[in-house]
Protein 1
Amino acid sequence: MIFFLFSFFTWFFLAVWFIFSLFLVFFWFFFRFFFIFFTFAIFFFIVLSFFLIWFFFFVWSCIGRFG
């Protein structure tokens, strides 16, 4: 049950994160002339999201292996 809840919340968080990333890219595409610093923010956001995805899969595999 705990494993099911953890995997559900993991995928839910990843879906929300993906939708938020798409919203940021859409926002940057239309307002890039006014918000140049958003380029650096989106680059940092993408790196952070890759790290978070790696972290969630690492924890998820550890729970699956030892739980």
Protein 2
Amino acid sequence: MVEGPSAASQFQTRLFSYIQRIEPLVGREKAWGILEDLVKERRLRWLNSAKIGGGDPVEEAYRLFYTEYLKLDPEDAEIVEKKPERIVVRWRNPCPTLDACRALGIDTRFVCRSVYESSTQAFMEKVDPRLRFSRSYETIRPHSEYCEETIELI
């Protein structure tokens, strides 16, 4: 039996479709910027109610963001570098953003940079102001077989 898109993917597709419809009215940057602001607000509100452990900041940020907030399965992660000051992960998880971008013909590089980059950085800084988040836009699905992301202590 073939399953259809998940409820999260369907929601994301409807949301992105709406953003595309308001682009001509307010401009592309502003339309996606509104979503970026909402995502950032939601992430920080969630983090304010979470228990931040106070241990290794890189490990703590990884745990809070990927495991607790996004609820990603560790089986979908390939940790390619792990040091006290840096973790690099290649994700192959089911992704509603990827599904929505595919369905609507939107480049994930644009959406992930415009909507999710600064909100993820804000999340990291709330865990520890010295943390930096980055994503490789050369290795991002569907242009690559995985999305590579880094959390770094600087």
Protein 3
Amino acid sequence: FVEVPGIKDSTHFRFWLFTKDKLKETRKRLNQGAQERIKKRNNSADIKPLSAKEERHMRLYFHNQLFAACARYRFPFDVTATVHTFWKRFYLSRSIMDFDPRLILPTVIYLATKAEECHINCEELARMYKLKNEWITKNEVPVMEGLNFQLKVYHAKRPIKEYVARLRKNPLVPDGNLDKMEKLAQQLVLDSYFTDACLYYPPAQIALASLMMINRKEKVIEEQSLIESCVNTGGEKVSAYEEKLKRRLEEVGGMLKKGEELAKTWASEKKKKLNEAAAKIYVKKIKPCLDPLLNPSTEEYKKQEEDNNKEAEAARMKKRKRRRQEEEARERKLLGSDEPDDGQPFTIKRNKSFKPKPRPSPPPDLM
């Protein structure tokens, strides 16, 4: 596969790629932890936490809103991919019952544009979601904490370009079809964010599988020739590990195909209405579950912030007083004063008993 520089030593490769069992276990543990916290916060039997299935549907519904937002802003590939990756990663370390997805969604967009150096107006983003500007900015740090401050994301776009460049060297491939093939492969990768493909497979594998799937539709080149042209074997024949390679590509390709189907399904008007109806039920159910101390729109959050500001100001005043006392102590030591510190501002007092020495008499006149 194409070797993306630095990816094997990256946090992306070491911390954000999972097996299917590990990913399922992580989400199950998050859901159970959130349910326990809700029960401790609220003793009311009327408050029922979301099940793991309900939480997944809620997460998918709001994730679909990210696709709409990215299409509206016409983000480039890298920004769109980073937005979706941040969303998936954040809700792998935080539960949707702890952090309101209606606030996290615009925050993820805003943070991803910063990470990819693509300017977006925060006030305009807040207006689009009918939120206050400060609610987005105050959620930036919690989102980064959920991402473990690991903001570097590797995408399949670069490997796709490298594979296409290798295919251009193959005389059997019509050069005019490769640009279309590259564009369709990138769209297929973007559709794959409806699934968890980016959490299972490295970008190079997703890229090659996307080209393989598009090639099956467009019939640009024989599949065997495509794989041999793209895969750098270091002199070793592809046939030496062909079965294992094709099995992995089929697995990834199946995930890409599922993403393409989901993209079409979620785009249908019938599905939109069903999802909106289900989302209203889930939003109504999730409101009492949310921790008010993690939501900038609540009075509890504002009071907590005021208390924190008062404590911080008191700590600053205490530190300032201690620094002033240390400076006064240094001045007394410098001026040789042994008077104890009574807590009052240090002043230099006049010595009334001081008598200057008389001037020495002038030398006698020898002339």
Protein 4
Amino acid sequence: MNARNENIGMLSVSGHKLYGPKGVGLFFKEADLILSPQMTGGKQENKLRAGTHNVPGIVGLAKAISLAAIERDNENKRLIYLRDKMIRFVTETIPGVFLTGHPTDRLPNHASFVFENLSGNDLVIALDMAGFACSSGSACKVGDPKPSDILLGIGLSPELAKGSLRITLGKYSTEEHIDKLIDILPVLVNKLRK
């Protein structure tokens, strides 16, 4: 991706999201954008952030970006297959569940559902106990019992929005994982609805 060609003024990347090192990131900004320093005291990063560069982390992030670029097409195809298999099963076999967002124009590794008559937080706990790491909302809202502003913004009722489940697949997700998930999910949903 070329940020300038995409007309992107600012872009930030977290290393761990690309299977790179934790605690390192990348920040791009157009030269004509003026920002206030976040940490003063040195001239690093054009005086925007003082401190010693994390050279091993930066090298690790560069390698992670390089590998992600090489693997992207094949990995996206694999993830789309797994995601679509999961979405198809969940929406066709569990009553009172709805896919949120566009059915196909979405991230290759992401599926978000809402379940009628069910607490998304309770479902996340049950899935965790079954060995699955899922979420009932965005990472920045973990532990917040209120329904997602985004789900409310697309017109869902507060009660339905509280039944949200977000599943994100990754590099190490397999078809076996999906098969286990689609085996246990209807059982957990039925149990929690009783």
